[in-house]
What does this fold into?
Amino acid sequence: MTSPAATPTLAATTRLGATHLTVSDLDRSLRFYQDAIGLRVHSHEDGRAALGAGGEDVLVLIEEPGADRAGRHAGLYHVALLYPSRQ
It folds into this structure.
């Protein structure tokens, strides 16, 4: 008799890197991610800013003036952040 297939799992040390987003206005985007989301700027230079909650970078914004919006079509156009509480 064969044993049931083991459920594949990721190692506990597996981590995702920061999400990189192209933005048309870096200053406006920084205000949003700081004021509305609560992230802090870890670095900011040459049209690029890295943000996080104090530890690892979770978001990197790259300014590209005139960049088009993602539009209203299917695709991966979202970022999810896990917070320890709703507060």
Observations:
- The two ends are 52 Å apart (CA to CA).
- The beta strands are 19-23, 40-45, 48-52, 57-63.
